[in-house]
Specification:
With about 250 residues, the protein is of the alpha/beta class. Helices cover about 35% and strands about 20% of the residues.
């Protein structure tokens, strides 16, 4: 049985302020929960799950202390879930330690300028994981990587990709002899790029693109050639297409 205080506490984690204060985030649904329990059991702080899920997943929770598991019913899950359709199980998870050891001479990093849609950010994290990109550097006004919608959209990739928040202008000014690819509407077609690609891939805001200040710091403007009449591509889709040519 969930008490009012527990419900209020879990609900508070829908806000970035409280996620930061508690160093926790919420993950929901069987798929991402199974991945977290398999790969990051030490980060699990509590499991709230339907009896049926617990009965069917004894192997997943066998190493989790019983005090960290609370069986709940469907109505209780609805009260604490942040999904439109609650899905069997909800975890409270400690935020992951971020590896900020980046060598831009040896790896390609994604840099995001004001990607504010949680679904887009989550999908970009998932795409980065697919292509083996280990770091994403976000501007301060990007969506929070631990927003529940972001976490769900990553489909578990949030565990394997380091997401950092920095002042992008200051960061780029410090980079010397580093390739900075800016994804724009007019630039070198990605099909013409060859060789090994390291450095930074800069992706802009969903509607405004890359800010002018950042564009001036880029040294390689690239584009996905357009054949139809669409004005632009979704930021996550564009990221995937470009990475498929760079990596």
């Amino acid at each position: 049985m969930l008490g009012k205080a527990q419900v209020k506490y879990i609900q508070s984690l829908s806000h970035k302020k409280f996620r930061d204060e508690e160093n926790l985030f919420i993950a929901e649904g069987p798929k991402i929960v199974a991945e977290l329990l398999a790969e990051k059991p030490h980060a699990i702080r509590h499991i709230y799950a339907l009896e049926e899920w617990l009965s069917n997943n004894k192997n997943l929770v066998k190493n989790i202390n019983d005090s960290l598991i609370t069986p709940i019913n469907e109505k209780e899950l609805e009260r604490i879930s942040q999904l439109s359709t609650p899905n069997q199980v909800l975890l409270l998870v400690e935020k992951f330690r971020i590896d900020d050891n980046i060598d831009l001479n040896k790896e390609l990093v994604i840099m995001l300028d004001a990607i504010q849609d949680p679904g887009n950010l989550g999908t970009i994290i998932r795409i980065a994981d697919w292509f083996g990109v280990k770091h994403i550097i976000c501007s301060a006004d990007c969506a929070d990587a631990y927003n529940t919608k972001v976490v769900q959209s990553t489909m578990g990739s949030i565990m394997r990709v380091n997401v950092l928040y920095k002042n992008l202008v200051d960061y780029l000014k410090l980079q010397k002899n580093i390739r900075i690819y800016a994804a724009v509407l007019e630039g070198t077609p990605i099909q013409k790029l060859s060789g090994e690609h390291t450095g930074i891939l800069l992706i802009g805001n969903e509607s405004k693109g890359i800010s002018e200040e950042l564009l001036q710091l880029a040294n390689k403007k690239i584009t996905i050639p357009r054949k139809g009449d669409a004005e632009s591509l979704n930021a996550a889709v564009a990221t995937g297409i470009i990475l498929s040519h760079l990596l």
